[in-house]
Amino acid sequence: MKKGKPKNDDIAAELDKLHVLQGVDFIKQLKLIASFADFHLIETDIYAVGGEDGNDYDKQLNAARKAIAFGYTVYILPNPKTTRSADFIFVRKGVYKLFDLKTISGKNSVGNRLQESIGQTNRVLLNITIDYNLRHLARDVRWYFGQSDVALEVLIFNKGISFSATRNIALSKGFLKMLMNTFR
């Protein structure tokens, strides 16, 4: 174990602090969590700290593999039972972001899955594993930003492509056209 780094036992408490932190303090907390010595390399640029036998681990690993293809380093977070928490810390070009994973494998399920994310984190990763109606996707992402004042980003992995929908993009008139041009 790296000397001076927090232990895995402290992760649940540190993750819980993310719910009250904002701005620079939030980013510092993400960096602290990612520095925990108990994170171990699973595959190139994918780290985890236990939980490999959890119910969602295969979905997390699948999404993490896609994320590294898009240039991210991925930290798969444990799922503490005491608090609602996100699934990943993504790092790219020194920028740390916290994401909740929603794997989309059913028709018309994006809205329900986004609703589940409200209150967990302000960034959601939609890992779409089926052919999904882009009009429904655009409608549901817009709805999500309308429902959550703190929502910042919906990152969409679909058909080997990554698309980041921020509030301004999702609420713009050209959002559906952007999705269609990206994923068709």
Order of helices and strands: HHEEHEEEHEHEEHH
On the 0 to 100 scale, the average pLDDT is 89
Please, how many helices? 7
Q: What Rg is obtained from the alpha carbons, in whole angstroms?
A: 16 Å
| Order of adjacent strands in the largest pleated sheet | 1-2-3-4-5-6-7-8
Shape: globular
Poorly predicted tracts of residues: none
- Which oligomerization state do the chains in this entry correspond to? single chain
Summarize the main sheet.
Answer: 8 strands, mixed
Strand content: 15-25%
Total number of β-strand segments? 8
The level of helicity is 25-40%
Distance between the termini: 47 Å
**Secondary structure category:** alpha/beta
Task: Tell me what you see in this structure.
- By secondary structure, the protein is α/β, with parallel strands linked by helices.
- Helix content is 36%, strand content 24%.
- The chain has seven helices and eight strands, in the order H-H-E-E-H-E-E-E-H-E-H-E-E-H-H.
- It has an eight-stranded mixed β-sheet with strand order 1-2-3-4-5-6-7-8, with helices on both faces.
- Helix 4 packs parallel to helix 5 and helix 5 crosses helix 7.
- The chain is globular, with a radius of gyration of 16 Å.
- The relative contact order is 0.11.
